[in-house]
Amino acid sequence: MRPFSLVALVVVGALTALLPATAARSQDATPFRIGIAPHTSARVIIEQYQPVRRAVEAAVGQPVEIITAPDFTAFAKRALEQDYDIAVTTGHQAQLLKNDAGYRPLLTYTADFRAVVVTAAGSGRDTAESLRGATVLGLNPSSLVTLWGQHWLKDKAVPDVQIRYVSAADSVAQLVLSGEAAAGFMSLANRHKLPPEVQAKLTTIAESPAMAGRVYLLNPRKAALFDKIHDALLAFGVTTEGKAYFDTNALGGYREISDAELATMEPLADEVRRVLKAKP
């Protein structure tokens, strides 16, 4: 029995020594979650961000998944509840997440972010006044393009406009062209990504000034990874794959974003807070 006992002790000791390593590997296998604000369909978002996913996966040494939410309000709520390790969203929600949930801005894109108001070409809807009493489409009460568009209508004193919300920019275009709405709000980037034949049938009647566009923010729980992820994204940006990603999506590249730049979005961040309070 003595030799068997010795062997058993050796085996038990070896297994015990392996437990921390096994636990570490199990922890490393937990997906790192990058949440992308739903500026278009989930399918397009997941496909579009695969190069970014691979770059972050190499940096953090664990599986990375790209996820989104049904709409901008749900995205903001989930981000505030710490659902995302990295959140990628427009400047007004970035300001919200920074101030209210401790997310730290990583980078943004160099390309300007602008919102536009589009109508069907030849429809006669080519001024703000021509939208009086009409239906106008937005993406969600918490989306930057919708909030800007609603302010534009208010500034132009256009009365009796009914705002209707849909899920994606291509839906906005389809409904405007089918005559179900007089106009719609979308980002300039999403307008440029519509099929050429669809773009040709739309008229832009207003365009916003440049605003803080999509910002990458790191969850405070992952603060130790900030430098590693920040540097990995910058390195990705100068690779062949990174340049192709920026060119395909008209994003220009990455740049730093300051707290002062985000602070200009505070009035619109506050509107998101009001939407979240009103939502059951």
From TrEMBL:
Residues 1-23 form the signal peptide. Keywords: Signal. It holds the Pfam family Phosphonate-bd. The keyword Transcription regulation does not apply. It comes from the Bacteria. This is Phosphate/phosphite/phosphonate ABC transporter substrate-binding protein. It comes from Azospirillum cavernae.
